[in-house]
Write a structure and sequence with these properties.
5-stranded mixed β-sheet; 20 strands; binds S-adenosylmethionine; alpha/beta; 9-stranded mixed β-sheet
């Protein structure tokens, strides 16, 4: 084992927009970049995590068409190009939605001569296709920054599944002894299943669009060596980070979602005591009211409900008149359970309290919490009026209070 402390001194988990965060990194410092940006898929991902029923989602909507998407992606990839070492490699994971456009953009940034591979990752999953072929592959473009780059050829089994072929007949009739283990890896990968067929896989975090560790293992082993710096600037639930850590690489992960960063921290915690050197710093998590104002609505919901109130987020979209979170009826500290509503706004008034009262009654809760940046006097009066009736208790909590936690929240 290398000197872990020294090796991993620089590991960083950064919560923020990669456009700003990548620009803060040293130029030509990274050996390998893998990114898996949102796919221009017009989907709002929403997934429920394990037992805790945490709602996860992230935005993948591009109202302005593919040009808008590329104009969003281009400056980010340009910034990534700047931080890549001259011997570095860049992989971008995409699919049919935008891969043609991404390829053109990459040729412009890296130079067409530095295009190395279009990797086709094939998998099985349900795809409702009736008048066309099923779309069952992703594309991973691989570019080097120059004509000199690190490449450790991965080896894969032969067609018959065997790794060792003793001998084979050449076209001239001579028998040739095969010395290598398996064969050199082609640019089509059919041996790495997606999570669609492995729903109960141990490594599965429940994060939408999580990629398999085997996929990242192949890329990281091929395009970096032990001690090299590997970066994922759209790191999601941290697949690249988890694999880089296990393969003794240094790493940097950036994601705009505080929930993603929390999932990665949880994932890395599982390594503690199992592998050495899990040392890293976390920067950019929301710590001020200004930071919290900038969160996407679903991130705000998760930040309030899951992170700060340690409650359960509701399995529904943000913004309706129901409950955004709850403490279940059998909760250890919140007896009888409670409902939570979050409002990412100021001067939340009487009408919100009234609607919340109705929602609480519907869910048969006697207690509830509304979280917002500030409330009107009318809201506080309404809360007092409801309390006087003796049926329900509603508490108004400001984001400032959540951040400072000067008094107990629940
Ligand atoms: C397709 S997912 C990545 C999944 C990841 N490969 C994994 O295995 O978990 C894309 C990620 O990009 C993040 N993201 C979107 N826009 C971003 C930005 N401007 N800066 C940093 N991260 C961003 C999202 O929060 C999401 O976690």
């Amino acid at each position: 084992m290398p000197n872990q402390k020294k090796l991993w001194k620089t590991n960083k988990l950064i919560c923020g927009d990669n456009l700003e965060e990548v620009a803060k990194l040293s130029k030509e410092s990274v050996d390998l970049i893998y990114i898996d940006p949102p796919f221009f898929s017009h989907k709002q991902y929403e997934v429920v995590f394990g037992d805790e029923a945490e709602v996860r989602s992230f935005k993948d909507r591009w109202e302005g068409g593919v040009e808008h998407y590329i104009s969003w992606l281009r400056p980010r990839v340009q910034a990534m190009y700047e931080v890549l070492k001259p011997t570095g490699s860049f992989y971008i994971h995409c699919d049919w939605h935008a891969n043609a456009h991404i390829r053109i953009m990459l040729d412009e940034i890296f130079g067409g001569e530095n295009f190395r591979n279009e990797i086709v990752w094939c998998y099985e999953r349900a795809h409702p296709a009736y008048k066309m072929f099923k779309r069952l592959h992703d594309t991973i473009f691989f570019y080097s920054k120059s004509d000199t780059w690190i490449f450790n050829m991965p080896r894969v089994p032969f067609k018959d599944g065997s790794w060792q072929r003793k001998s084979f007949k050449r076209p001239d009739g001579k028998i040739w002894e095969q010395k290598l283990k398996g064969k050199a890896c082609p640019d089509w990968w059919i041996d790495i299943p997606s999570f669609a067929t492995r729903m109960s896989a141990k490594e599965r975090t429940g994060y939408p669009t999580q990629k398999p560790e085997k996929l990242l293992e192949r890329i990281i082993k091929a395009s970096s060596n032990k001690g090299d710096l590997v970066a994922d600037f759209f790191c999601g639930c941290g697949t690249t980070i988890a694999v880089a850590q296990q393969l003794e690489r240094k790493w940097i992960g950036i994601d705009i979602s505080p929930t993603a960063i929390k999932v990665i921290q949880r994932r890395l915690k599982e390594f503690e005591g199992v592998i050495e050197g899990v040392n890293y710093i976390v920067v950019g998590m929301p710590t001020t009211v200004k930071d919290v104002r900038k969160l996407e609505p679903f991130e705000f919901q998760n930040w309030v409900v899951i992170d700060k109130m340690r409650a359960t987020a509701s399995r529904k979209k943000v913004g309706d008149m129901g409950l955004d979170g709850y403490y279940p009826k059998g909760h250890l500290f919140v007896h009888g359970g409670a409902g939570i509503q979050v409002k990412q706004s100021d001067k939340v008034g009487r009408n919100v309290v009234d609607n919340f009262e109705t929602a609480l009654k519907r869910a048969d809760y006697k207690k509830g919490y509304i979280v917002a940046f500030s409330f009107t006097t009318g809201a506080y009066e309404e809360v007092a009026r409801i309390k006087n009736k003796g049926e329900l208790e509603i508490k108004l909590i400001t984001v400032e209070e959540l951040l400072t936690k000067k008094k107990p929240i629940v």
